[in-house]
Amino acid sequence: MSVEVSWFAALCDDDYEFLGVPDPALASSWEHCRGIALAAEEAGYDNLLLPSGYALGIDSVAFAAGIAPLVRRIRLLLAVRLGEMWVPQLARQLASIDQMLGGRLTVNVISSDLPGQSLESAPRYRRTLEIMRALRLLLDGERVDMDGEFVSLHLDPPRVTAPGPAPFYFGGMSPAAREVAAQAADVFLMWPDTLPAVADTLADLRARAAAHGRTLRFGYRAHVIVRETEAEARAAARRLVSRLDPATGEAVRARSLDTGSVGVAAQVALRDSADDEGYAEANLWTGIGRARSGAGAAIVGDPDQVLAKLRAYQDLGIESFILSGYPHRAEADLFARHVLPHLDHAPLAF
Question: In whole angstroms, how far apart are CA 313 and each of 47, 192, 220, 318?
Fold first, then answer.
């Protein structure tokens, strides 16, 4: 079965040689992130996540518009923070970028607050669902007539609409987030977890989607450290955190806007369950979560081990992998040389 394999462009100030030790050469900038994007396309990745954080790094929508004319084959998975956007304007921006890409835009929907404001989880996800429904109509060239709790729009679509399906990738582990995914997402994204826990999550989301007469596809967002031998990969993992001060790691995690989410709590629990070397199960290392909010574990091993781990997730129903490593450009090259040629991979078809 074919799988989509994506890489990560470090727009949100998340690129290091040593976690927790800032390196000006790896700071988020147009030049640095453009280099990651072009290298990922050259290496043969199917898609590229452009992450978004209000306080961190450069803007994802602006970067997507800048990089779109420079890439010829790779898709862009553009993260948008819905709480920060006015729906009609966001629809025009996304449709314009999709035209520039020739229909290769995919959208990572983030259920965010407005910067400086905070909304309880349940109403925030209700707002997210309304925005997703309105945005979907406008991107598809359909009129919106909605008088919701948060979105009130009676509006014809703009002339420029998305030439491709512009599918919605969406993640969140709380019950409210899972319900949004079941009703309005195309691909449900999850962060690293043990194989049994991933199987449980997929079963729950399949049942929730079926209750709404829908089906979901599934993606897995993780880091990766692959070397020619397992010993070398484990050594690379240890080196990555070798200069990490615990207080610095806590400060890095605290900068993220999602530190109180159910998903982040699950990553903390995964890390707490790990052995003395940080492995929650074979080849799943949680050390990255010591200095990163969000996806906090890496698949670590030699090429055969990493490939076997990915195929085990595939056997559960994962159809899209969004991978990253440190430094991102260097690890993208290592994965592309050691593992990517052995995966039957292609962009997801919608």
Answer: 19, 10, 8, 6
Q: How far apart are CA 257 and CA 245, in angstroms?
A: 21
Instruction: Give domain status of residue 33, yes or no.
Output: yes
In sequence order, the 6+-apart residues with CB closer than 8 A to the CB of 200 are none
Question: Is 296 contained in some domain?
Answer: no
Name the H helices within 16-69: 30-43, 60-67
Task: Report cis status (omega within 30 of 0) of the bond before 327.
Answer: yes
Spatial CB neighbours of 195, under 8 Å, sequence gap ≥ 6: 281, 312, 313, 316
Looking at the domain assignment, is residue 23 inside a domain? yes
At 123, list the tokens.
């109403």
pTM above 0.90, yes or no: yes
20 is written with which tokens? 């927790």
Q: What is the pLDDT of residues 146-155, one digit of tens each?
A: 999 999 999 9
Q: Per-residue DSSP letters for 177-216?
A: HHHHHHHH-SEEEE----HHHHHHHHHHHHHHHHHTT---
Nearest residue to 185 (alpha-carbon basis) of 198, 204, 167, 173: 167
Q: Is residue 152 part of a domain?
A: yes
* CATH number of 72's domain: 3.20.20.30
User: Could you tell me the CA-to-CA distances from 338 to 34, 182, 219, 227, 331 in Å, in that order?
Assistant: 23, 35, 21, 8, 10
**The dihedral formed by the CA atoms of 91, 92, 94 and 97, expressed in degrees to the nearest 10:** 170
pLDDT tens across 131-143, in order? Answer: 999 999 999 999 9
User: What is the Cα–Cα distance from 91 to 141, expressed in whole angstroms?
Assistant: 10
DSSP assignment letter at 134: H
Q: How many domains does the chain have?
A: 1
Range of the domain at 194: 4-223+302-342
User: Which SS3 state, helix, strand or coil, does residue 287 take?
Assistant: helix
What Cα–Cα distance (Å) separates residue 92 from each residue in 44, 89, 105, 233?
Answer: 29, 5, 13, 44
